[in-house]
From TrEMBL:
Predominant subcellular localization, coarse grouping: membrane
Quaternary structure annotation from Swiss-Prot or TrEMBL: Associates with KCNJ3/GIRK1 to form a G-protein-activated heteromultimer pore-forming unit. Interacts (via PDZ-binding motif) with SNX27 (via PDZ domain); the interaction is required when endocytosed to prevent degradation in lysosomes and promote recycling to the plasma membrane.
A biological-process GO annotation: regulation of monoatomic ion transmembrane transport
Keywords: Ion channel, Ion transport, Membrane, Potassium, Potassium transport, Transmembrane, Transmembrane helix, Transport, Voltage-gated channel
Annotated positions for site Role in the control of polyamine-mediated channel gating and in the blocking by intracellular magnesium: N150
Coiled coil: none
Domain Potassium channel inwardly rectifying transmembrane: 25-164
Catalysed reactions, as listed in the record: K(+)(in) = K(+)(out)
Biased composition (Low complexity): 1-12
Annotated ranges, domain Inward rectifier potassium channel C-terminal: 171-341
Protein name per its UniProtKB record: G protein-activated inward rectifier potassium channel 3
Length: 393
């Protein structure tokens, strides 16, 4: 019975697992946000060009085909109506009859003539005559509108093909972030790298802390964004990304992790979003790569393995070790407690050194004799010698 009670006692129960946080930004950079109940959909049509560029590839190709096919069908139907209205279809065998378009004997022929006109193919079998003013006007109108459709659709496809989104796929972030000491201060660090030999020009890095907070007035902000300093004041956020770099956020008094110890950090619930921006060297277009780190992806007391080695005449980067870390001695206290301990140590050293100098001077003075005038006139650790009147008395 005792064993059964122990097995079902609250102390023997497994601790409840913390529910996994829903990512705001996925590891591959996709923002995990969907827009719903958008009633003002007409706003998308006011910027039709951007709307078409943002469409998925299958929808863009469908719209591309439909734009040309519907235009050809529309003008083909008008050419057929002109031929039908003038009676050209009733005088196909009449050699004395001058039609609007030669050899246009049905809707299929009108559709083919519309394609030849808009694409400026001009096979020469179907030709407009000078006895059809309405056909001449329609020819000019289709030529102008066809050029506009070509410019619009080709421009959309060119911009969509040349988008630098795929360039961001070769910008990599470390799978984990680490917290360890750098120059005696706790720092939160992650690593970035570029897999291509063509570099990102004017690269810059930013970091955001995403977590819920409640204001003093009781307002709940579910996804509050806080900047994490990665060297904006010193210019360290502007990167020369030729080889992988370790980006460091110093946990100081301005950092939101100032009072977070290792245990408190593990119990916290947040997401760190990192954003790398720059221009593609080959095209000059702006590129942005994103990633994020959850609480369980922040390793306390770890440091990144070096990936850069010096070979014969060049530096080699080993990307097989890009995500690897190793443990290093790191205090589990918060950065604030570490700074206070360092301040107490500095204060102790500051007051202990003068006291030791005083003891040493007193020992030397006792060895020379208490009545020596030469010893009485000397300064002891910043103390002035006694006045002459007092010494004479």
């Amino acid at each position: 019975m005792a064993q059964e009670n122990a097995a079902f006692s609250p102390a023997a129960e497994e601790p409840p697992r913390r529910r996994g946080r829903q990512r705001y930004v996925e590891k591959d950079g996709r923002c995990n946000v969907q827009h719903g109940n958008v009633r003002e959909t007409y706003r998308y049509l006011t910027d039709l060009f951007t709307t078409l560029v943002d469409l998925q590839w299958r929808l863009s190709l469908l719209f591309f085909v439909l734009a040309y096919a519907l235009t050809w069908l529309f003008f083909g139907a008008i050419w057929w109506l002109i031929a039908y209205g003038r009676g050209d279809l009733e005088h196909l065998e009449d050699t004395a009859w001058t039609p609007c378009v030669n050899n246009l004997n049905g809707f299929v022929a009108a559709f083919l003539f519309s394609i030849e006109t808009e694409t400026t193919i001009g096979y020469g079998h179907r030709v407009i005559t000078d006895q059809c003013p309405e056909g001449i006007v329609l020819l000019l109108l289709q030529a102008i509108l066809g050029s506009m459709v070509n410019a619009f659709m080709v421009g959309c496809m060119f911009v969509k093909i040349s988008q630098p989104n795929k360039r961001a796929a070769t910008l990599v972030f470390s799978s984990h972030a680490v917290v360890s000491l750098r120059d005696g201060r706790l720092c939160l660090m992650f690593r970035v790298g570029d897999l291509r030999s063509s570099h990102i020009v004017e690269a810059s890095i930013r970091a955001k802390l995403i977590r819920s907070r409640q204001t003093l007035e009781g307002e709940f902000i579910p996804l509050h964004q806080t900047d994490l300093s990665v060297g904006f004041d010193t210019g360290d956020d502007r990167l020369f990304l030729v080889s992988p770099l370790v980006i460091s956020h110093e946990i100081d008094a301005a950092s939101p992790f100032w009072e977070a110890s290792r245990r408190a950090l593990e119990r916290d619930d947040f997401e760190i979003v990192v954003i790398l921006e720059g221009m593609v060297e080959a095209t000059g277009m702006t590129c942005q790569a994103r990633s994020s780190y959850l609480v369980d992806e922040v390793l306390w007391g770890h440091r990144f393995t070096s990936v850069l080695t010096l070979e014969d005449g060049f530096y080699e980067v080993d990307y097989a070790s890009f995500h690897e870390t190793f443990e290093v001695p790191t205090p589990s206290c918060s950065a604030r407690e570490l700074a206070e301990a360092a301040a107490r140590l500095d204060a102790h050293l500051y007051w202990s050194i003068p006291s030791r100098l005083d003891e040493k001077v007193e020992e030397e003075g006792a060895g020379e004799g208490a009545g020596g005038e030469a010893g009485a006139d000397k300064e002891q650790n910043g103390c002035l010698p006694p006045p002459e009147s007092e010494s004479k008395v």
